Task: inverse folding
């Protein structure tokens, strides 16, 4: 069963194209402008893409395209494996999109926090596995995660704020669309009724 939030996220095909482009733009601008380390809108745009387009290539392409474009102005990852882990972890929020449709705001907040945790655990595990900075032991892995905590401090906060703000904006846009649609439908309905009346009159004349 769709939530009230899910009901507000139903857009026309044309609107979805515009929203796809807008989400990519938000991802690019938000990543290039980070008020604190790892505070970006990527969890938010992934959740939004998943809720708008479902689990699909169109949804996954939103964070991927935003990453590719923003990476042109940012330093590299140092290895192909790390780059792959970053791309996959930042595309993971798309998988929570269906939950947003069913559970609403609880899923928005929970999905954003889960996305932060996924990014933190996967990227730091990869750092531990690929580098010689830490011993390849359980103790070394624990030390790696502890050392990364300062970089993680603001990430959950940023993901939650971005997600709530973005979905609030989408709800507002959805409500505006719902208000406009009936107005646009009036000429079509009137024209249809006129056609029906005319055909009825012609049919009556032939009887």
Result:
């Amino acid at each position: 069963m769709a939530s009230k939030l899910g009901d507000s996220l139903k857009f026309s095909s044309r609107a979805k194209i515009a929203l796809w482009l807008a989400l990519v733009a938000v991802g690019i601008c938000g990543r290039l402008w980070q008020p604190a380390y790892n505070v970006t809108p990527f969890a938010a745009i992934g959740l939004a893409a998943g809720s708008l387009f479902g689990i699909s290539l169109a949804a996954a392409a939103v964070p991927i395209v935003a990453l590719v474009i923003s990476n042109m102005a940012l330093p590299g990852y140092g290895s192909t494996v790390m780059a792959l882990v970053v791309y996959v972890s930042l595309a993971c929020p798309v998988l929570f999109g269906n939950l947003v449709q069913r559970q609403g705001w609880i899923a928005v907040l929970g999905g954003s926090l889960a996305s932060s945790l996924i990014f933190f655990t996967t990227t730091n595990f990869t750092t531990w596995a690929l580098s010689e900075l830490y011993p390849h032991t359980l103790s070394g892995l624990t030390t790696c995660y502890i050392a990364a905590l300062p970089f993680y401090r603001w990430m959950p906060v940023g993901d939650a704020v971005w997600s709530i703000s973005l979905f609030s904006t989408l709800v507002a846009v959805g409500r505006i669309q719902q208000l406009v649609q009936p107005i646009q439908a009036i000429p079509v309905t009137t024209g249809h009724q006129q056609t029906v009346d005319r055909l009825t009159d012609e049919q009556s004349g032939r009887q």
Summary: Residues 4-206 form a domain with the Arp2/3 complex 21 kDa subunit ARPC3 fold (CATH 1.10.1760). Confidence is low (pLDDT under 50) at residues 199-207. The chain has nine helices and no strands. Residues 39 and 123 are 15 Å apart (CA to CA).
